[in-house]
Amino acid sequence: MNTTEAPLRVAVLGARGKVGREICKAVEAVSDMTLVAEIDAGDPIERLVESGAQAVVDFTHPDVVMGNLQFCIENGIHAVVGTTGFDDERLARLGELLAASPETGVLIAANFSIGAILMMRFAAQAAPLFESVEIVELHHPTKADAPSGTAGRTAELIAAARREANSPAMPDATSQEIDGARGADVDGVRVHSVRVRGLVAHQEVILGGLGETLTIRHDSIDRAGFGPGVLAGLRAIEAHPGLTIGLEHFLDLP
Amino acid sequence: MNTTEAPLRVAVLGARGKVGREICKAVEAVSDMTLVAEIDAGDPIERLVESGAQAVVDFTHPDVVMGNLQFCIENGIHAVVGTTGFDDERLARLGELLAASPETGVLIAANFSIGAILMMRFAAQAAPLFESVEIVELHHPTKADAPSGTAGRTAELIAAARREANSPAMPDATSQEIDGARGADVDGVRVHSVRVRGLVAHQEVILGGLGETLTIRHDSIDRAGFGPGVLAGLRAIEAHPGLTIGLEHFLDLP
Amino acid sequence: MNTTEAPLRVAVLGARGKVGREICKAVEAVSDMTLVAEIDAGDPIERLVESGAQAVVDFTHPDVVMGNLQFCIENGIHAVVGTTGFDDERLARLGELLAASPETGVLIAANFSIGAILMMRFAAQAAPLFESVEIVELHHPTKADAPSGTAGRTAELIAAARREANSPAMPDATSQEIDGARGADVDGVRVHSVRVRGLVAHQEVILGGLGETLTIRHDSIDRAGFGPGVLAGLRAIEAHPGLTIGLEHFLDLP
Amino acid sequence: MNTTEAPLRVAVLGARGKVGREICKAVEAVSDMTLVAEIDAGDPIERLVESGAQAVVDFTHPDVVMGNLQFCIENGIHAVVGTTGFDDERLARLGELLAASPETGVLIAANFSIGAILMMRFAAQAAPLFESVEIVELHHPTKADAPSGTAGRTAELIAAARREANSPAMPDATSQEIDGARGADVDGVRVHSVRVRGLVAHQEVILGGLGETLTIRHDSIDRAGFGPGVLAGLRAIEAHPGLTIGLEHFLDLP
């Protein structure tokens, strides 16, 4: 970071939500940013302009995020967005809005955990170089879906990388199976979902070839884990006008 | 061990099989035993008596093991047996034979890996003290059955311990599942079977309660891992006349 | 638990401390106990009697705990104590007090995490059955001491178990070492201390013999992990009059 | 691979060594190569030409490898080399020889394990994105050096990546340490060396930031693990004339 520059003026939308509060803390904890506004449902969005915010972080709700972003883009305020619910139509609409404000940047990311992003990226890169790849994801037992969204996405990335490389089918001689033992088949990749009290959110990708295995494991135990990723997004957003999908494009990776 | 005593005279039946060869090496490598006979299919079993064997190790075949044991018991030779296929009828027959030779000991064990035995024992002891228990077993992809026999047996021991302690059902809020994601249900315990090239035989039991997890993992990478368990069986067999099922009864555990 | 009995009346001393607050929540969350008093510095201890407490949990301070316990014992109130600082003199004094109130029970425990207690117990039991044992403990980087207290205690238990069993020295052919690579030597057991942001409190005991390893790992991510252990102490305290050191004596283990 | 081409004609130098034998098996097991010569100490190297070898694999000895390579290069035979002992002088000499045979390729690699190469690469890429990075390497207890060569190399790559990114020093509040607990300091990166019977060669790189950790683990249990890397080298060598240091340059990574 360039320490001679003035701190970036940041506002948080959804500032009283669980994630929003962590983001506020993270922004306040670093010296190259200033938290200038904490806005939540009921607060007038015009406060963004009054506060002189240069960039916002939006962890709100699919119902309000498009209005928030229209206001930001029209006022030349960059946005780092963790809210979900963007379909092709919404992305097209954002593209139009941004075309009229060509210096403004919007980053939309499904995951701000740097560890999770790298786990997916490394798993996909390594997948064609090994005979076998399986995923074990482990979560608290109050989770409704199995596998997790991250595990499903990881499996798709692995499958795509192997198709591209013409990787052969993975070896599996299972002929006697108690139903479910071999996990779910997601695009040809086996995914196993463990649910145990005391866990939070964990995932292991196990890749193996003759005589060796490579395991890439991500452990996330706290919403605070989103902080560094959001800060990375804020630090890079000015240099990336237009629409970016996925924080990985802002990380300095080869 | 009492170093003033003469070394125990040991013979190996099935000495040219994969496990048998490792057992021969293990016996030869220690100073309190002497390997006096290596016998395999086609060799006359009378060589046991000629060699002066005090104890045999039998890793042969269900078709021949009963004949081997009858010969051993009638000649007062102790036996440590890893061969499979013992049903109630066979065990009853061994009981009759041993009744007529009351100083002879026979140990029959499904598993001579000390690590696997302890994993199962500790898992069963701990299971009633946690809300959740699941099993992940990981093996090479040429394995035919899923889950592994060890995983199935571990699940049964866990289930029995929890029933005895009146443990409540494990928490699991899964409502949306891709088929198989939550693994196989073995006696109420979820078991996940990973098959990846480069693995040998591994198992993890994950136990969890509020804010903490306890994981017991066994990694077996070599048949040589049976050696220490067989030696422990040989060292204890003289002091345990009659029939013993399971090496755990010979290990010095509270 | 016997559901026909009235709920146990529990008071918490140190109720506004970090651990105390979790204990209050844990007591309130179960149906076989009632939280009758939350007491902290400045509150009159006589409220214990007024509240009708049958048992207290004390997570206070070495300076006040002896006074608290004298009051409890003299009033026939059982105590489950997580406060530190008990030396031989203090334990002797508690013995005298309890002799005069023979139906009252006091449990003093350094660790209420059931997972940590089992990790130590299993590690000590298994240690004489393997050639090698090492400890890797992993904590957040704001921790002042290395190794952790739990790792030091685990190493001592392992060393004692191996001495008792006349286990030989562990194999180690290291002849070229960068200073510190092989960890700290605690009573002959190697202990490695990892300090990484994002970790909380974790420990792995790795035991190995020919061809196999057994790993016992404890992960603690939340003070709430003390809750189940404290509840177990409360449930058993009435049946254990006198002084007990260590929660393990109350857990139903062989 | 292009299945319409004739199989690559491969010779192995050091064919009766431990690694050499595994390489011979690996070459024989695939359909796009033919093993045309197995050469070891005492065999005339001219057999390479007679056999029509297009590429050799050299796992021999520093004393003979330069002679082997001179012969190969002068005869236009590509070489994939796992033998050690190449200093700047030797590399310069190879450069001269290759200048005179511009279509011949020589690959020199310290490590043919694809898993180990990826572990090092991913660790170095991720290191600047996290606050903390430490290495735990685990090996059999007959190993002489601690840390392992791979761990030392990994630490250097991590340190270089963090210097380049101006990463701040890692957090570490340790103020009370039993000597060695915090491991060896290799270029500012802490490395812990575990030595336990039953292990082979394993390494874990643990990276952590607020609320999350990323762990990259490599397990190598068999020399056969070199096979796929050597085959990858053989398949790519024709397309890479000149001198290449490190198999990573041949793997299809972004």
From TrEMBL, chains A, B, C, D:
Belongs to the DapB family. Homotetramer. Residues 115-251 form the Dihydrodipicolinate reductase C-terminal domain. Its EC number is 1.17.1.8. InterPro entries: DapB_C (IPR022663), DapB_N (IPR000846), DapB_N_CS (IPR022664), DHDPR_bac (IPR023940), NAD(P)-bd_dom_sf (IPR036291). Pfam families: DapB_C, DapB_N. Residues 9-112 form the Dihydrodipicolinate reductase N-terminal domain. Coiled coil: none annotated. HAMAP family: DapB. SUPFAM superfamilies: Glyceraldehyde-3-phosphate dehydrogenase-like, C-terminal domain (SSF55347), NAD(P)-binding Rossmann-fold domains (SSF51735). (S)-2,3,4,5-tetrahydrodipicolinate binds at residues 140, 149-150. This is 4-hydroxy-tetrahydrodipicolinate reductase. NADP(+) binds at residue 47. The active site is at 139 (proton donor/acceptor), 143 (proton donor). CDD domains: DHDPR_N. NAD(+) binds at residues 14-19, 46, 82-84, 109-112.
